[in-house]
Amino acid sequence: MKEESLCLYAGYTPGNGEPRVLPITQSTTFTYASTAEVSKLFDLEAEGFFYTRLGNPTVDAVEKKIAALEGGVGALCTSSGQAANMLAVLNLARSGDHIVSTGSIYGGTFNLFAVTLKRMGIEVTFVDQHASDAEIAVAIRPETKAVFGETLSNPSMDVLDIERLARIAHEHGLPLIVDNTFATPVLCRPLDFGADIVTHSTTKYMDGHAVQMGGVIVDGGRFDWTASPRFPEFVEPDASYHGLVYTQAFGKAAYIVKARVQLMRDMGMCQTPQGAFYINLGLETLPMRMEKHCANALRLAQWLSGQEKVGEVLYPGLASSPCHALAQKYLPKGCSGVVSFTLKGGREAGARFIDALNMISLQVHVADIRTCVLHPASSTHRQLSDEQLVEAGITPGMVRLSVGVEHPDDLLADLRQALDRA
Ligand code: PLP
Hints:
Blueprint: H1 3-9, H2 35-42, H3 57-70, E1 74-78, H4 81-90, E2 98-102, H5 107-119, E3 123-127, H6 133-137, E4 144-150, H7 162-171, E5 176-179, H8 184-187, E6 197-201, E7 215-219, H9 232-235, H10 246-250, H11 254-267, H12 273-284, H13 286-305, E8 310-314, H14 324-330, E9 338-343, H15 346-356, E10 361-362, E11 372-374, H16 386-391, E12 398-402, H17 408-420
Parallel strand pairs: 2-3, 2-4, 4-5, 5-6, 10-11
Antiparallel strand pairs: 1-7, 6-7, 8-9, 9-12, 11-12
The protein binds pyridoxal-5'-phosphate.
Pyridoxal-5'-phosphate (PLP) binds near residues 109, 213 and 215.
């Protein structure tokens, strides 16, 4: 099936007389006839639902749909995008280990890496994703467990050279984790370019209607965990499952099964059946929404670039963008819906502009069908020092515009009148 059809049909096939729409299995638990059957489930010798933290039919259908869209062997839904990125890393790294991440990433992920993982004993080195191969490789240490980046970075809209980063990671026996939130599998499938693990905040375009928090981890299934001595937890017996060895028992799906049965079991940041139902509704219309988000964003980015009061416009779909060549390679269908730009009048002009908007609302969010704006330096990236802000590609006067699916003329009219008053 092509992606429009996968978005509708992957993950759930009703039988005779069953609901056409994915049903919400609103049950925390599932019954069995014998203790022998339940024991097999607990020993991972049989597949089946027994407790919603570890698996639920509604959540399972959404996981299968997203895995199909990304071209992975399996997926694990989480309660938020933050949980997805945290689990994706913790499934590989423990205290004493190290991660290499690009610097221009979402502020929440930056905090997770720079503060919380550090407290847990996992160090993260941030690198400039446009630095040379050698400069990036220098950050890799014997205890490094992964390289991390965002396909389209939030909010600087940098495009990740996925093939290059994957090559550098693989040369050192490391997997590449790519947060594909802004692109969605409709615009880019990182696994096709050599990434090994993909994460998402499903709260963004996948839901798309600003109704449901969520995250997901997708396993590409191609990384060989046995080939490198860096990943003993994949090849040595897990005492919490009577000595089970993940790579032997689950082959290509070792990573995603381990994330579920070890980390989701113990940490419990699971998606709910109701939440998965909402995400599924969003996924059903994802391709047509992304087309409109991309078209509207390009039109607004082009208009903003011609305005006297506007400085830099960050949108890789613009021919003038330094990331345009990368965008043509990785995002040929469009560069998603976020346009970041700087007002020449700085922080104050940014505030005046945002306060003057009418239809476009101020929201700590992106990827909604309704257009919204935000001032990253005073909100999402507030915890970052000026130095870290620059590393994340943000200036104090930067405005992040998340372009929705309204008629572009209405959006332009609102931007024009607000700019007049900025
Ligand atoms: N990754 C990216 C690229 C994001 O933009 C966000 C949130 O904005 C997250 C992860 C975190 O996701 P959530 O807000 O669902 O926890």
